[in-house]
Write a structure and sequence with these properties.
- The protein is mostly beta strands and 130 residues long.
- Strands 2, 4, 5, 6, 9, 10 and 11 form a seven-stranded mixed β-sheet that branches. Strands 1-3-8-7 form a four-stranded antiparallel β-sheet, with no helix packed on it.
- A hairpin with a 4-residue loop joins strand 7 and strand 8.
- The longest helix is centred in the C-terminal third of the chain and has 6 residues.
- The N and C termini lie far apart (40 Å).
- The mean pLDDT is 96.
């Protein structure tokens, strides 16, 4: 049974940092594209950052997080991390990870929408507030 489990969310002050982790079981994550999606209150779920399979490694960042978020793989642990720094209140939301076979370039993977991904986690809450 395939499972994706997100951890690392929490409450952080503006300007702070968090590391989110997406751990896979039952899935050779290194062969899959992995995406992080965010759903802010009252908004649709959007792709924040994506990374293609380990053999490619291409990454994509949504404009609002460029320079502040870093996505990376830890293949030995079947994990993909999202390092978030200089957090802002508008980063608040539930963060979900998803995995799917890579079918196009990394930008289009992230923009094709959450429902197009084969495997999806349950999410972790990130709240940025003073």
């Amino acid at each position: 049974q395939v499972q994706l489990v997100e951890t690392g969310g929490g409450l952080v002050q503006p300007g702070g940092s968090l590391r989110l982790s997406c751990a896979a079981s039952g899935l050779p994550l290194n062969y899959y594209a992995v995406g992080w999606f965010r759903q802010a209150p009252g908004k649709e779920r959007e792709g924040v950052s994506c990374i293609l399979s380990s053999s490619d490694g291409s990454t994509y960042y949504e404009d609002s997080v460029k320079g502040r978020f870093t996505i990376s793989r830890v293949d030995a642990n079947h994990t993909v991390n999202l390092e978030m720094s200089s957090l802002k209140s508008e980063d608040t939301g539930v963060y979900y990870c998803a995995a799917t076979p890579p079918i196009t370039n990394v930008r289009n993977m992230c923009l094709m929408g959450w429902r197009g991904w084969s495997y999806r986690g349950q999410g972790t809450q990130v709240t940025v507030s003073s």
